[in-house]
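User: I want to check something. If I give you two sequences, will you return the structure for each one separately, not as a complex?

Assistant: Yes, each is folded on its own. Here is the first sequence with its structure:
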Amino acid sequence: MEQKNSGYQPNNSNSNKKAPKFNPYWIYGIIAAAIIFISTMNMGNGPQDISYGTFEKELLGSDDIEKIVVIRNELKAEVTLKEGTADKYNSLFIMERTPTVVGPHFSVNIPSIDSFDKGLKDAEEKSGKKISVFYEQRSNLFSEIIAMTWPLLIFVALYYFLFRKMTGGGSSGGGGIFSVGKSRAQMVDKNENVNVSFKDVAGLDGAKDELVEIVEFLRNPKKYTDLGGKIPKGALLVGPPGTGKTLLAKAVAGEADVPFFSMSGSDFVEMFVGVGASRVRDLFKKAKEKSPCIIFIDEIDAIGRARGRNGGFSSNEERENTLNQLLTEMDGFGTNSGVIILAATNRVDILDRALLRAGRFDRQISVDLPDLNEREAIFDVHLRPLKLIKDFDKSFLAKQTPGFSGADIANVCNEAALTAARKNKKAIDKQDFLDAIDRIVGGLEKKNKIITDDERRAIAFHEAGHASISWLLRYAHPLVKVTIVPRGRALGAAWYLPEERQITTREQLLDEMCSTLGGRAAEEVVFGKISTGALNDLEKVTRQAQAMVVYYGMSDKLPNVSYYDSTGQSDMSFNRPYSESRAQVIDSEVSAMIEEQYARAKQILTEHAEEHKRLAELLLEREVIFADDLEQIYGKRQWDNRGEEVANDIIAEEPENNAELESASEESTESASQEA
């Protein structure tokens, strides 16, 4: 068999090995080894340590001592024997020490100078011979150096293990305090491959069009500058949490052929004065060197909050200095040609007005919650990696999740996969998604929660009151499902299908308020007493009534008056924008509106007492009921069929024993019956 390249080839494995990189910690290791070596290099030739008792017994009375040197500051005596007499005392030398020729041969720790002098005098009187004794002060240069340098060594250790950690030097690869003013922005170069593109961002067509145009500005600026136009300085992504603002910025980084600097607003904040402004200057300096490029600042409200709100407090001075520097860099005397700034926030109302003016953030791109079609597109993206059953209907998922953000939808898909795996399924079906929505919206089921029969009956009539009134009122949200199985903190819950609308009328708000109060009204009508189970209902109704009176101007005594501040300038205000007399009117209007709807709920339940009782008994029997059950008791809901469509989709997936399984709704706007 022929073998190619069989000739001799030298082994270059050693030459190809890279030399190890220099580590500054090696220096500390060498210094420590040198200290140990110096301290031990004379161990074999120094004087032998003996006890004071041995010295008095074996040496002091003999005629072999040539001289004794007493070191006063160390309370130590060094004994030198006469020449040729060291061999007599070999038994005193241990650890295989070799006695020196010239001495000293022994070292003795003396109790005190007076005790030594007295013992020496007694020995001289007993032997009748004079012993040469010398007294001196001795300093150990090596010990003094160690005593002076150990605080410095401790400081160096603290610097590396504590101080550099605080300033980020330990995690950023060096620099320590000397780089604390440097920008921490993460740069994505145009040569790097970013996996996120605009194809991965479902929905948000308007926002993507704006950002695609910004990317096009950087790719082909001549197309716009030939007509006299200028490239926009910046764009602000505004929207609720979880709608995909940061994802859009990642898509821009993936689509753009220019460097992309990414940084969070909190990265500018540091414990040292002036660090934030220094990091802003360093960030724009790097961006100008890499221009054309894009700077993305996530959560810009961390440094962009309106100035002057806390005029009496100095804690925000550093943040305001950082904001001032950012404003200067964005539109100062210096030119930032080719540098476009993107920022994201969900609290645009608290941003400083100077930050939002034209010339800084020229465009505000709204990233709202997705509508029906956008939710369906988002589900398509998140369902790609999932293993679904054959002929899986994806359209029903978007119908059952109004008000869900992109992050919520991703969570639903992930939770559905976990639910299917928990049940040892080979593929994910519709019921897994329904269970996932139920768990996310209402919480985990607690079937083993201890509830007495009286409490269970009260919860059933409470939930039946919600379901009955929502079915009988025209503008209330149609019911999808109601259950008395405890979920999370709630002892019972009802799921409704809210209508996707942009504006809401007074009649619609009042019907929703009446439906929310149906639980407590049912308790009073049926049992003649009320409980703490309506806490969540009362909280929601009170907020809604206050908004109708104070914000929307929907009360009889205060029509067309609104105290809502859309600018957010009154967030830190200590004064209300109305007088005490007006506050009393507001309180009376809120109370009157709530009491009116509560009386209305009791009247409706009284008129339909028989149907309400049948519904509650059915709920006690089956624990879970659907819109189809209400239709059998109350008849078909004549105003719309949205609830019927969703209920039919859910019931089609339910087995015969509906008491053991539950289905999800479009949105959990109601979480009633909460026990204290």
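And separately, the second sequence with its own structure:
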Amino acid sequence: MCKVIVFAGTTEGREIAEFLDRRQIPGHICVATEYGEQLLPESPVLEISHQRLDLEEMKVLFQEKDPDIVVDATHPYAAQVTENIKKACEETGKEYIRILRENQEMKEEGDWIFADSVEEAVELLSHTEGNILATTGSKEAAKYTKLENYQERVFLRVLSLPKVAVACSQQGFQGKNLICMQGPFSKELNAAMIRQLNCKYLVTKMSGDAGGFQDKMDAARECGCIPVVIGRPLKEKGISVNQCRRLLCGKYSLKFQGEITLAGIGMGSREGLTLEARKIISSAQLLIGAKRMVEACKEPGQDFFIEYNSQKIAEYIEEHPEYDKIAILLSGDPGFYSGAKKLLQALEGKKVRVVPGISSLVYFMSRIGKSWDDVLITSAHGRDADLVSLIRHNRKVFSILGTRDGIRNLARKLAEYDMKNVTLYTGECFSYPEEKIRKGSPEDFLDYEGDPLSVVYAENQECQELLAVHGIPDSAFIRDKVPMTKEEIRTVSLSKLRLGRDSVCYDIGAGTGSVSVEMALRAPYGKVFAIEKKELAFELLKKNKKKFAAENLILIQGTAPEALEELPAPDQVFIGGSSGNMRQILELLLQKNPQVRIVINCIALETVAETLNCIKELAVTDTEIVQLSVSKAKEIGSYHMMMGENPIYILSCTGNGKGR
């Protein structure tokens, strides 16, 4: 059974034949030569013939094979063949589809060069190298003399008439470079001449079958010689290869079965593509990505879809099963802060591969001559990252920024936290002509506005490395006369909170901020809201925030629970003071997040009793009560006496997710 007949004399015809093979659609493929047959895939679903057919033979073939569709993918110059296919379809009642190249007005189309005149052909050939077989006649001979070294490079084939030979000789064509012969010339004779003269180009006019045009084209294709054709294809109506595949998918209800590649394109310019990425992109039928990426990578004839939303990309691919090879373009490297993670989830179940690219980190560090094996790597592009704190506690930090004011804002914060000795390296628009790399102190970038495509590398020789565990010494905090959660109590309380690196936390009754600061430093990608009602304590909070460069610590002056109402839902909450509002505070916290983790410090027994009553009645689980007594040695003369401090009750629980 044959569903599709394809007349395949071009690359487009071969692509349709390969599509039929991949999708297991039975077809009959007609080519004009044995060479054309060799280029087609061997397939159990394809029958291939290489006989040239006239109109009557085509009608017989259509009646015998009884296809649903006849696809005409012959060359634009094969006007008579196209006319015969059309007429045969009309007389046998078959659906006719004409495939045309994406842009027939292009000067160069794969292995063909088109020109409107011999003068234009000569101009095009002046930028090439290699011998030329010119078959445009003696009247055009003088035009080839404009080519450099034409007497050696051009082989002129003309009629074998004495006056013709004399005229061409006077133009400088003599000896082996002047071929006087009478046609017709078979394909075999043309091929032998091309090989003997080692010609890379063959110049001919579009003369039709009477002028032996097809024999020249077949010979050139067989010898790997590029035809330079004077004239233009007929103006025809038709569809592209991709449109033909789409039509076949719809007619036979085909689903997407192609290969998807997430291709890292480096910094954006074609020069920054790896050889593997370049090969993948070049062979893709569809490119998907942001506009700047697609414009940098697309080639003539490729379809493209401008989009970076993972779900919309997945939906588009599902709606377009005609594509066998799709490349989704990702800037830098797909494994380095890219959209690859979401795309892999959205495309689950499909055949997807990932091709690496050069990341902005690798490119930038090489440009400034720095190693990056000991650099803290992060990103502030579309996410929260406490860069000030990271720079304060790490000697080397690299970050993607992604906004015009990113560098300026960072510089101002570093200056605000007295981190003026930090050295900043900034880079933007990598690989583009406007690429810019600068070095300086924070003060050099206070008014800087850069490109959104920017990164920063910071070196802090005076960094204060964080301890591996909780427990900043009490003496490190600015305290004055405000009560503070002591180091030992703070350490146990923080361990009970079970902080994540991106947690959203509350410290209610923050006091000096000792707990708030430690939470902020332990959750560099999160947020900590410190709530304090007393003026003196609130001023100390400001000072300690600045001292520890806790940029992700947000200070709120007010009383809970009112001060909590507009805040985002918390993951963890520490309550050091409730001002008698414990039940209202706990109810609001569970309302905001029914699974919130809560740790409460109590000194007075009345507060312990009140808190226990609340915990019993509210929707919490994982309840634990720890009573901690701390004694510290004090020197008295030559002796050390242990001095006990007030015992602390540490109550912890987790919302059970069910509400009240």
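Because they were folded independently, the notes below concern the second chain alone. Residues 79-92 form the longest helix (14 residues). The two ends are 69 Å apart (CA to CA).
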